[in-house]
Amino acid sequence: MVPSPLVGSSIHPSQGGLPPGPVDALGYPVYDDAQVVGHFERFHEDLVVALNVVDALVSSPASLAWLLDAAGGLALEHAGKIAVEHTLPEF
């Protein structure tokens, strides 16, 4: 998964707790395979779970398409607008 502030901001919870586990100078490390790709200031297990779900969806465009289809109407409309904005050539 390519780390992105957009991915994190789409699922960011308001608070986090403190779990047992290693913390480094930057906070709680976030791993993609064995590589540190970011840090959380506060640990929140639900955020980690949500990031794993997002990773699975963005890794499989077909799964993401099915999710948007299931969400229906407004989600498809917004996704369509974003897709058009990102695919039109700049003049």
What features would you describe in this structure?
This protein is α+β, with helices and mostly antiparallel strands and 91 residues long. It has 4 helices and 2 strands, in the order αββααα. It folds into 2 domains: 1-59, no CATH class; 61-91, no CATH class. 53% of the residues lie in helices and 12% in strands. The protein has a two-stranded antiparallel ribbon with strand order 1-2. A hairpin with a 2-residue loop joins strand 1 (28-32) and strand 2. Helix 2 crosses helix 3. The longest helix has 15 residues, at 45-59. Residues 12-20 have low confidence and may be disordered.
Can you write the helix and strand succession as a string? HEEHHH
Strand line-up across the major sheet:
1-2
Pairing-aware structural class of the strands and helices?
A: alpha+beta
Taking the sheet with the most strands, its summary is: 2 strands, antiparallel
Question: Tally of extended strands?
Answer: 2
Any descriptors?
4 helices, alpha+beta, 2 domains, 91 residues, 2 strands
Give a brief rundown of this model.
This protein has 91 residues and is of the alpha+beta class. The protein is built from 4 helices and 2 strands.
Write the topology of this structure.
Layout (H helix, E strand, L loop, with lengths): L4 H7 L16 E5 L2 E6 L4 H15 L1 H11 L1 H15 L4
Antiparallel strand pairs: 1-2
Helix pairs in contact: 2-3
